[in-house]
Amino acid sequence: MIEARGLTKRYGDKTAVRDLSFSVKSGIVTGFLGPNGAGKSTTMRMILGLDSPSSGSATVNGRAYAAHSAPPHEVGALLEAKAIHTGRTAYNHLLALAATTGIPRSRVDQVIDLVGLRDVARKRAGGFSLGMGQRLGIASALLGDPHTLILDEPVNGLDPEGVRWVRTLMRTRDELNAMGSQVRDELVEVGCELHRPVSGGIRQQQCVQRAGATTSSAQRAASAPPRQRT
């Protein structure tokens, strides 16, 4: 479970996130929706301990991310797909991550096959297309076989086959919490139970889709903000 309580982040006189509270229960796909600058990525960074909140708290499965003895087994995250050593191959990038977190080499091969990068695993990641970079980022997130996934715009740059694959991944891994920052229609297609719009740092919450609802019924039920790209 992911929980935020009164989460606020200020940068000087700018408030990126203001008094944001929510809970994401196990097995529920939850999405953040909002325009650029709304605070979606900042919220994800605070959950992962990459940014310290000005006030409030964020926990994953009852603890702050850094307090877990094996964080990659609790949370896997994709925030920036290009945050890689461009001179390393995809295989060596994942192998380095595994070696520093006690994950066996066999798991590297598993996630490479899972995300469909076997044919390019020995090529330098710096030459990857945006879509292949996204797949490598998702492989990194899955490496620790985590209980929770946090994915920021996971289908960005993917071809139609890749988009379908991400949708299937998020629908079928029922044990995971997953949070994505995407346009409204994509969140509905992925099967989000809740959209939590964030706008100007102000708390908003709106129920869009319940488990088992069809996409069409979810769209009819929603009175969410107009479609907008993050």
What is the structure about, briefly put?
This protein is an alpha/beta fold. It has helices spanning 40-47, 71-74, 90-101, 105-115, 130-142, 160-172, 184-190, 215-221; strands at 2-11, 14-24, 29-33, 55-60, 75-78, 148-151, 177-181, 194-199, 202-203, 206-207. Helix 3 (90-101) packs across helix 4 (105-115) and helix 4 (105-115) crosses helix 5.
Can you offer a commentary on this structure?
There is one protein chain. The relative contact order is 0.19. The two termini are 25 Å apart. The protein is 33% helix and 24% strand. It has 8 helices and 10 strands. The longest helix is centred in the middle third of the chain and has 13 residues, at 130-142. It has a domain at 1-61 and 173-230: Rossmann fold, CATH 3.40.50. It is globular and about 45 Å long.
CATH fold type of the domain at 1-61 and 173-230: Rossmann fold
Sum up the overall morphology in one term: globular
The class by helix and strand makeup works out as: alpha/beta
Task: Tell me the Rg in angstroms.
Answer: 17 Å
What is the top-level CATH class of the domain at 1-61 and 173-230?
Answer: Alpha Beta
Strand composition percent: 15-25%
Furnish the topology, listing elements before pairings.
Elements: E1 2-11, E2 14-24, E3 29-33, H1 40-47, E4 55-60, H2 71-74, E5 75-78, H3 90-101, H4 105-115, H5 130-142, E6 148-151, H6 160-172, E7 177-181, H7 184-190, E8 194-199, E9 202-203, E10 206-207, H8 215-221
Parallel strand pairs: 3-7, 3-8, 5-6, 6-7
Antiparallel strand pairs: 1-2, 1-4, 8-9, 8-10
Helix pairs in contact: 3-4, 4-5
